[in-house]
Structures are given as structure tokens and as C-alpha cells.
Design brief:
alpha/beta, four-stranded antiparallel β-sheet, 241 residues, Rossmann fold, globular, 7 helices, single chain
Length: 241
């Protein structure tokens, strides 16, 4: 089952008096539970594609369906609610609030979910910090954590809303080799154990090697798509709850 589908999607930007075509006629179907890497050189359009899937940006033309919902014509508030409940984000610069502790950073997106009580929020924060191995660092602020620990906090924050999709934009770019491998393995384990869909934008060959589906993009167009294995993936019933 496709959790993301793009149909004939193009994206243009206006830079000064010039019209720049970032994506051209992209059709792509992403199955639930995959560990997918979108690879390509700088300026290829991979980050634009990730932003469209994340409903951070909107296409110039074409249709995008997220978890079966057509996001075309949605208001900014409607897109914000969809992001909050369906999509988690992990960035290469971590994007943590420096004045908040690890547990407060993880809790922050949960404040948008008004149906959660204070105790329910605390339970989720504790659970996801435990999953990423940072229970003992819950009250540490980002400047008291290593780069790898900060990225683990970012992963816990992305998972805390219990999204169906996690988007990761160059998540290993600011990490040393060994730490980056550990972070990748953590995300791969979460994908394998709980069926969370991971979609990466990356230059990192390690991400590409670990992905079970690889999409190459150049000059705003998909050049090749590669399925690495056909192992039985976890179903939605196995997702973190």
C-alpha cells in the first residue's frame, strides 16, 4: 500500500526575473514501511521533493497524496495539522531549542495535540527517549550533549507524535563517521521493528547502501529507481504505539 504518491508533480520557483524549474513531472509511489533514500547531486531537487512530501511546500502542478489524503488545495492550517499528526522531521542541524532540555524538546510537538493530557505527554517523552537510549540525559540541554546525542533527541522528537512517515534531510551530514553509522542503524532498527516509513534526502553512500529502495534524481527528474530487497516489511499493526 502506498503511503505517499506523487502524480505528475512539478515545482517552479521565481528568482528575480528568472523562472527556475526545481522538479519536472515527478510520478512516484512510496510503500508503507520502506526505508527509502532520495539521492542526487546538490541542486538536483531532492530537498525540494522532500519538502513537498512533508507538506512544507506545495507543487506548481500535479497531485500529492499523503496517507491516502489529497493535499492539493489545503489551507496552511490544514497542512500544519496533517504534518503534526502524520509526519516527523529530522534535520542535519538537529533544530533543537537550545533553552529547552532533551525531554522538553521531545515534548514540544506534542503540545499541538490537544487531546493528550500532561501525563500522556510525559509518558510518550519517557518512552521515546528510552527508545533512543537517552533516558539518563532527559534534563540535559543541547549544549550539554554530543552531536550524536542531539540527533537522537531529534529522532525521539520526530517519533513522539507517532507519525506514519519520518522525513530525514541529510541526518548524518554533521556527524563523524562512527556516530553517523550508529544513528543510521538506530533508524534502521526503528524501521524494522515498528514499520515506521523513513524517507531520506542524502549524499551519504551509507544511507544509500542501507536503504531498501533508492531513488536517483538529477536536474529535477527521477533518473532511476532501485529496489534493494523484497523482505517482508512490518505492517502498520507493528508500528510504535
Amino acid at each position: 500500500m502506498s503511503i505517499v504518491r506523487l502524480e505528475n508533480v512539478s515545482k517552479d520557483y521565481t528568482l528575480g526575473e528568472q523562472q527556475v524549474q526545481a522538479l519536472l513531472d515527478i510520478t512516484l509511489s512510496i510503500d508503507d514501511g520502506v526505508f527509502l533514500a532520495i539521492a542526487g547531486p546538490s541542486g538536483s531537487g531532492k530537498s525540494t521533493l522532500l519538502n513537498l512530501i512533508g507538506c512544507i511546500d506545495t507543487p506548481s502542478c500535479g497531485k500529492i497524496l499523503i496517507n491516502g489524503q489529497d493535499v492539493s488545495g489545503r489551507t496552511p492550517d490544514q497542512l500544519s495539522d496533517l504534518r503534526a499528526r502524520t509526519i516527523g522531521f529530522i534535520f542535519q542541524t538537529f533544530n533543537l531549542f537550545p533553552v529547552l532540555s532533551a525531554e522538553e524538546n521531545v515534548e514540544y510537538p506534542l503540545l499541538q495535540l490537544k487531546e493528550l493530557s500532561t501525563s500522556e505527554r510525559r509518558d510518550r517523552v519517557s518512552k521515546y527517549l528510552s527508545i533512543v537510549g537517552l533516558s539518563k540525559f532527559a534534563r540535559h540541554r543541547p549544549n550539554q550533549l554530543s552531536g550524536g546525542q542531539r540527533q537522537r533527541v531529534a529522532i525521539a522528537r520526530a517519533l513522539a507524535t507517532q507519525p506514519k512517515i519520518v522525513l530525514a534531510d541529510e541526518p548524518t551530514a554533521n556527524l563523524d563517521h562512527k556516530t553517523g553509522e550508529g544513528i543510521l542503524q538506530l533508524m534502521k532498527d526503528i524501521n524494522g521493528n515498528f514499520g515506521t516509513t523513513f524517507i531520506f534526502s542524502t549524499h551519504d553512500s551509507r544511507v544509500m547502501e542501507m536503504a531498501n529502495r533508492l531513488v536517483h534524481i538529477e536536474d529535477g527528474q527521477i533518473i532511476t529507481q532501485e529496489v534493494r530487497d523484497e523482505e517482508k516489511r512490518p505492517t502498520a499493526a507493528g508500528r510504535i504505539a
